[in-house]
């Protein structure tokens, strides 16, 4: 067993939508990482697959944000959940001047 802090970079260890479990198993040639994200928990083997999974987590978040924004633009309305999500990201809702 190894510590994730000694194996990967701080940006890989924790991001806005994920955290890597500190315990890393090494079976054979690959480190096995556990990713805890806003979208679920995933196990991955190897640093290259870890990079792929972290990219997928970031992309999924971007797509959800785009979908929420598109609904607001098309309808002119935002649900309270969408409003809270956008506010948490530092966005403000309002009519253009």
Labels describing this entry:
six-stranded antiparallel beta sheet, 6 strands, alpha+beta, 3 helices, about 45% helix, single chain, about 100 residues
Explain what you see:
By secondary structure, the protein is an alpha+beta fold. The chain has one domain. The protein is built from 3 helices and 6 strands. Strands 1, 2, 3, 4, 5 and 6 form a 6-stranded antiparallel beta sheet that branches. The longest helix is centred in the middle third of the chain and has 29 residues. The relative contact order is 0.12.
Summarize the model shown.
Helices cover 43% and strands 27% of the residues.
Which helices and strands, and how do they pair?
Layout (H helix, E strand, L loop, with lengths): L1 E2 L6 H4 E2 L2 E3 L2 E5 L2 E8 L2 E6 L1 H29 L4 H9 L9
Antiparallel strand pairs: 1-4, 2-3, 3-5, 4-5, 5-6
Main sheet overview: 6 strands, antiparallel
Specify Rg, calculated over alpha carbons: 18 Å
Percent of residues in helices: 40-55%
Q: Please indicate the count of domains.
A: 1
Order of helices and strands: EHEEEEEHH
Segments where pLDDT lies below 50 for 5+ residues? none
> Which structural class best describes the helix and strand composition?
alpha+beta
The outline comes out as elongated
Number of strands: 6
Q: Which percent band covers the strand fraction?
A: 25-35%
Number of continuous helical runs: 3
- What is the mean pLDDT? 76
Report how far apart the termini are.
58 Å
